[in-house]
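Note to self: keep these together.
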Amino acid sequence: MVVVLNIWATRVVRRQIELPAHQRSSQILFIWIVPVIGAVIAIEVHRRPALRRPRSRLVADEIHPIVDQALRPLADAEMRASEQYIEKDLIDFGHDLGGHGHSDGPH
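Structure:
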């Protein structure tokens, strides 16, 4: 049974002419080194799109955690930079009000 599955997976990978030869060879090697799991992974990866069940839409609850995880570090860094910029502007403004800043000339 395992040999039949590996042969099938090997044929599936060999038909992928858009893949470079070294990548096909690596995948076939993986199929035979890790017999059942490698074959199942190779077959699933190269399965024709017509065989896959199409999804009518992606639910927002599925997207939100992925987007949040990807963008959270960027948003946090930008928020810190904005806070530092505002804080610096307020300090500079306070110095200007206190007379420690620039001079408008003689009054």
